[in-house]
Design the sequence.
């Protein structure tokens, strides 16, 4: 197992290298630069700034310089926020995005899991119908619509939670629900399908034949097998929740790294964008690895080697 | 399995618990929706309006501004004299201290100005010190001896400033952040970290209490400030919410006291509320016409397009926030300046000009593009004008929507025919609207050039007599409007929502509201 993990982690390096290189050059293809603004800078002033950030060097030299910096763990200065380095800004934003993502996943798993379970057990009942309607709603309503809607209802209308911002647990609720709903819907459908498949199988019939309570049959025997597809979905979902929080962070004014991703791209803040891309990539790769390991743990038939 | 779940839950609970609730006292706390995270708190580095809202209260320049009419008032300088030739200012500094107790001296200004002009610092607003004698030469590296630049500390309390040419609005510039003094020792001790809470040393009526990027920035009253007695606010909180709809909801929910804008889609409802305000802003919304690209290379076509726009209808039915329809380029209402009228709405004259240019009733007129950057407001305005041109001239124009940086790049390389634009004045003088139209000016971006215009602007720069100077600039604007590389549409308005508990806040054309005059009443 440790050998397997080490090998997988070593495999990250070439993947990251390709991601960094591609992003570096693609970013430069976009028209305009970090110091284009509506008030045009005098030529000399502009040249002074570009020299300060080494933007006057050839693209190749800049690329080598950047790779060297990244290897030393330095993601460079932010062009837009000169008071802080990219490391510092990502360091501040990362825990926030992580917490938001974790809460959204809790919402997705609890809400989606419960709905899917009920729907699967009580197939074709009112419960099933309601749960699947919720799933349809969750999948089809985009979060930039859902967010403002929830805000209007629960913050402005009922005054239960603040409109936006970050700082107390009350600030987390709406964004976590907004972000988690789509995934909850997906989890609900997966759980339901898993339940339907498992419930018809022989070992469930055996369990019932032994006279076990229905709750035990469902929870002890059916659920662990039924949620396997959900577990394999959790990896990509967690990564998607983290990288997908961009919109939610903007709508709810949350100081996570998604905000930096958006403003970085719009402002051609090259180092900032690359920094966020690297962070997101590491996250994605790690989550995939984590899920593979978890999968082996839940299903003895899968072997990690 | 269950153990793992417990662990996850514990960690989650701890993380959530770590978000402690800040206690907000209600009295004399002013919460501002600043709409964006400030790029920096270093006065020598910043260029934006949101940064100005913060820094103009953290620091104080030689002069400050009157909250009502924005005229210069004594700041760090208690008094000043100007030489007869209009070139040399002598500022007498008052006994003021930095937040760490050190005195503010003339040397602090010299240090700050050298830093901005030094080519190595790459300051974006170095041009605001090009008014000094040899300022530009030092910044471009042609001159390496700062001793020859027109700023000198005669003694700790006397600062002498020598200008390149008489600059009537120089005292309007000395309250601008680029010209603030800086605490050399703090910068040397902490490097770029000197702007962080706990390290920052400033000299304004407020000081930095905390700053968490993208979350909030808090100022507190500076008890050491020379005028602390007249400062009422105890705390000021800046929220960087950049989603305008969210920010608007924050205001409605009572989470902020001032939002300096209103989402275009909410104008109609906002206008019915007592908190809504709208007043003229020192800015012109206009179209650039690229004189190097046919068919707008023909001045008759440019004028016809201008004559065919019904600006009254545009502001009344499309923008709706109280914008002032205007066809001159320099906004009305500047002290001592009466600008030319420009071209009004006259469809018959427009059709006649277009026919003279060879396109009677728009026949044979090539397809043309109107460039604008992504924004709801720009979209509806360009659509309305597109419709007017079609109706009155029979001309078809295609709207091209691009992202901000692409828009800037295309405009800068003259890769457009017509492009929407806006210009906000830096200071209260027509010069800030006319200087840009000189031949080859970086902000000209239309390819337009007029020798006569350049001469008049040169003349205005030399004149000391205010009336003669204004006359020269009026003649220059007349030439600009006659050449029609610009198609002015309206004067911007400041529009926003202000809590009725806020007093000492006055509408003005730069939308600047010094916090030291503001107080909260129940």
Sequence:
């Amino acid at each position: 197992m440790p050998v397997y993990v080490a090998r997988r982690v070593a495999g990250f390096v070439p993947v990251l290298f390709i991601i960094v290189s591609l992003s570096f050059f693609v970013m430069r293809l976009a028209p305009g630069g970090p110091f284009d603004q509506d008030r045009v800078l005098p030529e000399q002033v502009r040249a002074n700034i570009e020299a300060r950030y080494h933007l006057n060097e050839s693209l190749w030299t800049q690329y080598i310089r950047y790779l060297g910096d990244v290897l030393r763990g330095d993601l460079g200065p932010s062009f837009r926020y000169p008071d802080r380095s990219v490391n510092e800004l990502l360091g501040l934003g990362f825990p926030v995005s992580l917490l938001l993502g974790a809460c959204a996943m809790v919402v997705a798993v609890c809400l989606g899991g419960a709905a899917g379970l009920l729907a699967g057990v009580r197939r074709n009942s009112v419960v099933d119908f309601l749960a699947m309607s919720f799933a349809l709603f969750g999948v089809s309503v985009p979060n930039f619509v859902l967010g403002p809607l929830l805000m209007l209802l629960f913050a402005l209308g009922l005054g239960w939670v603040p409109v936006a911002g970050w700082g107390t647990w009350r600030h987390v609720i709406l964004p976590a629900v907004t972000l988690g709903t789509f995934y909850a819907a997906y989890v609900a459908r997966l759980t339901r399908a898993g339940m339907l498949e498992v419930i018809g199988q022989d070992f469930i019939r055996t369990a019932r034949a032994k006279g076990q309570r229905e709750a035990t049959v469902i929870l002890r025997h059916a659920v662990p097998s039924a949620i396997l597809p959900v577990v394999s979905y959790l990896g990509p979902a967690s990564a998607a929740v983290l990288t997908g929080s961009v919109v939610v962070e903007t709508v709810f004014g949350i100081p996570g790294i998604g905000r930096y991703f958006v403003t970085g791209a719009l402002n051609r803040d090259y180092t900032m964008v690359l920094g966020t891309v690297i962070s997101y990539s590491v996250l994605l790769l790690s989550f995939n690895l984590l899920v593979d390991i978890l999968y082996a743990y839940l299903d003895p038939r899968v072997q990690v080697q | 399995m269950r153990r793992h779940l417990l662990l996850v839950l514990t960690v989650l609970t701890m993380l959530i618990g770590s978000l402690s609730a800040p206690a907000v006292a209600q009295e004399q706390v002013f919460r501002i929706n600043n709409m964006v995270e400030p790029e920096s708190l270093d006065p020598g580095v910043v260029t934006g309006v949101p940064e100005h809202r913060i820094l103009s209260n953290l620091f104080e320049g030689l002069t400050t501004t009157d909250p009502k009419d924005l005229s210069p008032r004594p700041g760090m300088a208690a008094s000043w004299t100007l030489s007869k030739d209009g070139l040399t200012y002598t500022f007498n500094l008052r006994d003021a201290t930095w937040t760490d107790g050190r005195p503010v001296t003339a040397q602090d200004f010299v240090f700050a100005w050298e830093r901005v002009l030094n080519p190595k610092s790459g300051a974006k607003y170095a041009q605001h010190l090009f008014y000094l004698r040899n300022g530009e030469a030092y910044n471009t590296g042609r001159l390496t001896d700062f001793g020859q630049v027109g700023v000198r500390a005669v003694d700790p309390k006397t600062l002498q400033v020598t200008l390149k040419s008489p600059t009537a609005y120089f005292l309007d510039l000395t309250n601008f952040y680029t010209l603030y003094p800086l605490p050399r020792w703090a910068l040397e001790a902490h490097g770029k970290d000197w702007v962080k809470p706990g390290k920052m040393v400033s000299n304004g009526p407020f000081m930095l209490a905390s700053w968490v990027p993208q979350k909030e920035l808090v100022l507190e009253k500076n008890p050491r400030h020379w005028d602390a007695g007249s400062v009422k606010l105890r705390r000021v909180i800046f929220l960087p919410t950049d989603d305008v709809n969210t920010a608007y909801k924050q205001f409605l929910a009572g989470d902020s006291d001032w939002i300096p804008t209103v989402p275009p889609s909410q104008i109609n409802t906002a206008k019915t509320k007592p908190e809504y305000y709208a007043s003229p802003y020192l800015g012109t919304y206009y179209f650039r016409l690229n004189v190097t690209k046919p068919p707008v290379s023909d001045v008759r076509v440019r004028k016809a397009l201008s004559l065919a726009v019904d600006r009254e209808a545009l502001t009344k039915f499309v923008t709706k926030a109280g914008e002032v329809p205007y066809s001159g380029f320099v906004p009305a209402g500047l002290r001592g300046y009466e600008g030319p009228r420009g071209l009004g709405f006259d469809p018959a004259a427009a059709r006649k000009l277009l026919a003279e240019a060879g396109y009677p009733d728009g026949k044979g007129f090539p397809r043309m593009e109107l460039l604008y950057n992504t924004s709801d407001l720009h979209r509806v305005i360009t659509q309305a004008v597109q419709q007017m041109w079609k109706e009155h001239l029979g001309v078809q124009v295609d709207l091209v929507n691009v992202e901000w940086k692409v828009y800037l790049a295309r405009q800068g390389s003259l890769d457009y025919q017509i492009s929407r634009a806006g210009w906000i004045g830096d200071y209260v003088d027509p010069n800030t609207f006319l200087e840009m139209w000189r031949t080859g000016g970086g902000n000209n971006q239309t390819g337009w050039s007029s020798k006569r215009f350049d001469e008049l602007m040169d003349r205005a720069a030399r004149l000391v007599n205010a009336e003669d100077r204004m006359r020269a600039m009026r003649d220059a604007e007349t030439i600009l409007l006659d050449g029609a590389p610009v198609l002015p549409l309206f004067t911007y308005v400041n529009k926003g929502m202000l809590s009725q508990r806020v007093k000492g806040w006055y509408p003005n054309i730069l939308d600047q509201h010094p916090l030291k005059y503001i107080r909260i009443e129940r």
Remarks:
- Chain B touches chain A through 62 residues (CB under 8 Å).
